[in-house]
């Protein structure tokens, strides 16, 4: 996703969808909608004492807010489909309500009897901004297969454009100056490019025992 040029941090740069963990991401109302993994397991995978599940929920929420992709299960246990015009219109309204603060992410999930697909999200890496910089972040990166019956659409506010392309293509376009990229994004693309398939990437990420934070 391309960040808005009005952003105070990395304006105009292409990054993966994401953002800050919100207090609601660890609320009882949202945790009750995750029935496949608890905070203890999520935190252990990410190498933190607690709050790991909130990081995963925030990643899924931000992907919906910024990119319009919703990693959630329907009653049949498969990714919710957002392909019919009525569904596209409905979830566009849900997304607008979420971005304006009229709805919570728990509302979006609960109103159609969905469950948050946290088990589809796999912890991949962690980046901590070096000491001394004016803005510091502790960022957790996850990987997941995108829902096939959904179409990514930037929100037009935080994200003004988007592009789907292979990691090596993104790196080459970045090298040529056609695609502004940050160091964590470049490094992540290099890591992802080592895998021929999404399944191989996810399986490798699941097998990680300990992820050392990078700076």
What does this structure look like?
The chain is of the alpha+beta class. Helices cover 36% and strands 10% of the residues. It has helices at 28-31, 39-46, 52-67, 85-99, 105-110, 167-175, 183-192, 198-206; strands at 2-3, 72-73, 115-116, 122-128, 138-143, 159-161. The protein has a two-stranded antiparallel sheet with strand order 1-6. Helix 6 (167-175) packs antiparallel against helix 7. The protein is globular and about 45 Å long.
Question: What distinguishing features does this structure have?
Answer:
two-stranded antiparallel sheet; 215 residues; two-stranded antiparallel ribbon; alpha+beta; 36% helix
Strand content: 5-15%
Number of helices: 8
Oligomer: single chain
Apparent shape: globular
Rg on CA atoms, Å: 17 Å
SSE order, as H and E?
A: EHHHEHHEEEEHHH
Mean pLDDT: 90
Total number of strands: 6
Helix and strand content put the structural class at alpha+beta
Distance between the termini: 22 Å
Helix percent band: 25-40%
Short overview:
The protein has 215 residues and is of the alpha+beta class. The protein is built from eight helices and six strands.
Ordered list of secondary-structure elements with their pairings:
Layout: E1 2-3, H1 28-31, H2 39-46, H3 52-67, E2 72-73, H4 85-99, H5 105-110, E3 115-116, E4 122-128, E5 138-143, E6 159-161, H6 167-175, H7 183-192, H8 198-206
Antiparallel strand pairs: 1-6, 2-3, 4-5
Helix pairs in contact: 2-3, 6-7
């Amino acid at each position: 996703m391309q960040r808005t040029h009005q952003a105070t941090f990395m304006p105009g740069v292409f990054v993966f969808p994401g953002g800050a963990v919100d207090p609601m991401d660890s609320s009882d109302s949202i945790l009750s909608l995750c029935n496949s993994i608890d905070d203890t397991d999520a935190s252990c995978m990410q190498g933190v004492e607690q709050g790991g599940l909130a990081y995963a929920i925030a990643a899924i929420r931000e992907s919906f807010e910024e990119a319009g992709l919703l990693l959630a299960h329907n009653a049949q246990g498969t990714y919710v489909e957002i392909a019919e015009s009525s569904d596209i219109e409905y979830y566009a309204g849900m997304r607008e309500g979420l971005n304006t603060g009229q709805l919570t992410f728990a509302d979006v999930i609960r109103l159609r009897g969905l469950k948050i697909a946290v088990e589809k999200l796999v912890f991949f890496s962690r980046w901590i901004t070096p000491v001394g910089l004016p803005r510091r972040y502790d960022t957790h990166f996850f990987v997941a297969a995108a829902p096939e019956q959904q179409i990514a659409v930037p929100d037009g506010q935080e994200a003004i454009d988007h592009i789907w392309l292979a990691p090596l293509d993104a790196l080459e376009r970045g090298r040529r100056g056609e695609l502004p990229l940050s160091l964590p994004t470049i490094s992540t693309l290099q890591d992802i490019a080592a895998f021929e398939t999404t399944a191989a990437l996810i399986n490798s990420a699941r097998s990680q025992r300990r992820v050392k934070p990078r700076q």
